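Q: Could you fold this chain for me?
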Amino acid sequence: MYKNVLNQRMIALFLLFSSCFLAVTGRAQSIESNSPQFLANAAVKSGNNQGSTDNQQIVTSKAAEPDTSWHPQRRLWGYAFGDAYYDAHSPALTSTLGKENNYYQTPTYRNAFQFRRIYLGYDYDINPKFRAEVLLASEPNENTTPTSATSSVVGGDNLADGRMAFYIKNFNLRVREVWAGTDFVIGEMSTPGFSLNEPGTNAPTTLSEVTWSYRSVERTLSDFHRNNAYDVGAALQGTFDPKTKNFGYVFMVGDNTTSSLTTVYNPNSTLSAINPNPNTGFFKIFYGDLWAKFLNQHLYVDLYADYLKTSSTQASTAIADGTLGPQAHNMFKVFAAYTTPSFTFGVEAYTQNFTNGVTDNTTKEAAKATVNAISLWLRGTVVKNKWSYFARFDSYNPDTKFIAADNYTVNTNYTSYDPTVKEQFYTAGLDYTPVKNIHVEPNVWLTRYKDQYDAATKGYLPDDHTLVYRMTFFYVFGK
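A: Sure. Below is the predicted structure, expressed as structure tokens.
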């Protein structure tokens, strides 16, 4: 019954997006058929039924002036950032603390040069209505452990021999103005979670990542804890007021696969990278976002939510009744920032629920885990176009209902999720810009870890931290 209902819903979504596409192509054909060139051609073709004087007039009439108002954007662009860094302290190499950060299992006192991101993109305006985008990315982790039968690189794009690799991060087609103020996008694209930024379209340009402006230093709060930055799917990106673009929305349906493929599951083998969760491709993630600009565009407000069912009921020997109920996760997030020419202050906070996301091994019951997190940051100008500063603090609690004396197993497949460890993140630094699009950013990077288990509970890890001193470089070309 559930699958029939789900299939009906997916068919309805497919028909909705198909109708948008057909409406656009029909409108484009209608515009073309009413153009001066089209009408002139039609008149010539029908001239055999008219007098010679009419034909003479058509032949000698002045040709329509070409439309010079549209200038296609076809550009190769890219950017890169990385560091010369010194790791003053990290947890032991055998520790599981800090699985989500760049320096996970990096040895203390290591010093090196590292690229943390390299982008290579191409934007191509096919015509005023259609636009294509492709983006290749390499985002290596400083942990360069090669992939093997017993180990794998965590959160990076390193090859088995430790070299960097590109993958396809965005590859999509945008249809502009399916109706006034709304674009339709299909393919692999940025989600509205934090990173979507498409100037010159109806997409938002004031979400948390672009407003924070220092992705070269660190990801935003929800990105750091692995909310989807990109996904394969379809989206409507629009504004409620197309002329001023102060209010808008994004609605997206995706596979929740990011750049991975929906591989066929073999029930006779254990779950692994080549034999993933059997539910992959059956459930869809829904993203929604409302954004606004107030006070003459000095105050930005963004409300974001997502929802995904990740699995149906499964048999489980860890549960007292032998059954693990359906799993799902959803996020509610608010971002607000006040910006002036001299400074910008921002707040990002979210709560996230994992239905049946963990199993309490003490009670043998599945439990819902609830995440609470908040980020506060400030950036500003010291010398215009030359020197700037930034500072930020994050607090992250992975499970507000955690019982310190109990023992837990993670059920959710949400990347790197660990309900046991609270984190606090700090960074501060300067930004020197010798010329436009080139930045040198000395900064301090610190994350503190606090285990929620009682000290006497099996699996407890003492408080620890990762402290890194960095000289970050960041440059952009083609934009």
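A (continued): The domain at 73-477 is CATH 2.40.160.10 (Porin).
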